[in-house]
Design a protein that fits this description.
- The complex is a heterodimer.
- Chain A is built from no helices and 11 strands.
- Chain A is mainly beta.
- In chain A, the strands form 2 sheets. In chain A, strands 2, 4, 5, 6, 9, 10 and 11 form a 7-stranded mixed β-sheet that branches.
- In chain A, strand 5 (44-50) and strand 6 form a beta hairpin.
- Chain A is globular, with a radius of gyration of 13 Å.
- In chain B, 0% of the residues lie in helices and 54% in strands.
- Chain B has strands at residues 4-7, 10-14, 19-25, 32-38, 45-51, 56-59, 62-67, 72-77, 86-92, 102-103, 107-112.
- In chain B, strands 2, 4, 5, 9, 10 and 11 form a 6-stranded mixed β-sheet that branches. Chain B has a 5-stranded antiparallel β-sheet with strand order 1-3-8-7-6, with no helix packed on it.
- Chain B is globular, with a radius of gyration of 14 Å.
- Chain B starts with a strand and ends with a strand.
- The chains are: A mainly beta, B mainly beta.
- At the A-B interface, strand 5, strand 9 and strand 10 of A face strand 4 and strand 5 of B.
């Protein structure tokens, strides 16, 4: 089966600019997650969707980050305006359902802020 | 909230030796514990997981043990090979938290030929 697809793989922008990331989960997976991974650390959850509804966005900096999953399949994560501390890898993961279902990750988008 | 501590941060072994990575968690309600392997430039890859109703699980050269009383779990890799070199992450989650994974800080494993 095809894995989680993410694009772009790399993005370089200047601070205060905007950027968007795209994720296509594994077919049939109802739950989609966006994680932020800062260099040298483990991933940290930003937002979780169940189909097209938000389950958990408690760690999402809502003044600058937004995410949507309008049709319950693909998802986009946006940052506007970007700050230097947003430099990280943004990982998308999906699972069949929530709870103790295995999460499968894409290869991420590496974002560098100048 | 849940906190996961992982040790050691770096581990170097000779090819053929065993490697052990340990994690502790803080919330006794956590019930799912996956382990991920992350290679440079790649996303985390699930290698094994264990649920709280099981004490041990094995898959070829990889095994995971769980001690619910002490709130710690460990990854054991036997007969290590150079291709096992990567960063390994443990994680914990709770059913009543929707499956959000809380990750440890990672262990960089180096297997010397």
């Amino acid at each position: 089966e095809a894995g989680v697809a993410q694009s772009p793989r790399y993005k370089i922008i200047e601070k205060r600019q905007s950027v968007a990331f795209w994720c296509n989960p594994i077919s049939g997976h109802a739950t989609l997650y966006w994680y932020q991974q800062i260099l040298g650390q483990g991933p940290k959850l930003l937002i979780q969707f169940q189909n097209n509804g938000v389950v958990d966005d408690s760690q999402l900096p809502k003044d600058r980050f937004s995410a949507e999953r309008l049709k319950g399949v693909d998802s986009t994560l946006k940052i506007q305006p970007a700050k230097l501390e947003d430099s990280a890898v943004y990982l998308c993961a999906s699972s069949l359902g929530s709870g103790d279902q295995p999460q499968h990750f894409g290869d991420g988008t590496r974002l560098s802020i100048l | 909230g849940e906190n996961v501590e992982q040790h050691p941060s770096t581990l170097s072994v000779q090819e053929g030796d065993s490697a052990v990575i340990k994690c502790t968690y803080s919330d006794s309600a956590s019930n799912y514990f996956p382990w991920y392997k992350q290679e440079l430039g790649k996303g985390p890859q699930l290698i094994i997981d264990i649920r709280s109703n099981v004490g041990e699980k094995k898959d070829q050269r990889i095994a995971v043990t769980l001690n619910k009383t002490a709130k710690h779990f460990s990854l054991h890799i036997t007969e290590t090979q150079p291709e096992d070199s990567a960063v390994y992450f443990c994680a914990a989650s709770m059913n009543n938290q929707g499956g959000k994974l809380i990750f440890g800080q990672g262990t960089e494993l180096s297997v010397k030929p």
